[in-house]
Amino acid sequence: MSCIIWKWRVDSDLCLTPYCVKAANYLLESIDKTADPCDNFFEFTCGTWLKNNRIPDDAGSQDTINLLRNQLDSDIVG
Fold this sequence. Notes:
The relative contact order is 0.08. The chain has 3 helices and no strands. The protein is about 50% helix and about 0% strand. It has about 80 residues and is mainly alpha-helical. The protein has one domain (about 20-75). It has helices spanning about 20-30, 40-50, 65-75.
């Protein structure tokens, strides 16, 4: 059994701009905290995102860029 210990420290390079905080929150919301990263790292890192963003029937994949493109198209059309 192995264990990783992270030491948290405030670093002068830590980005706390609203954009960085929003981006970090987006990533944290994608994590499935019920999944064990040692058993299924993909499910741990992307599980919640996958549950909230299904692949459309007319598409072979789904990703953040497609979601943003669809939202932009929707906003432009009105």
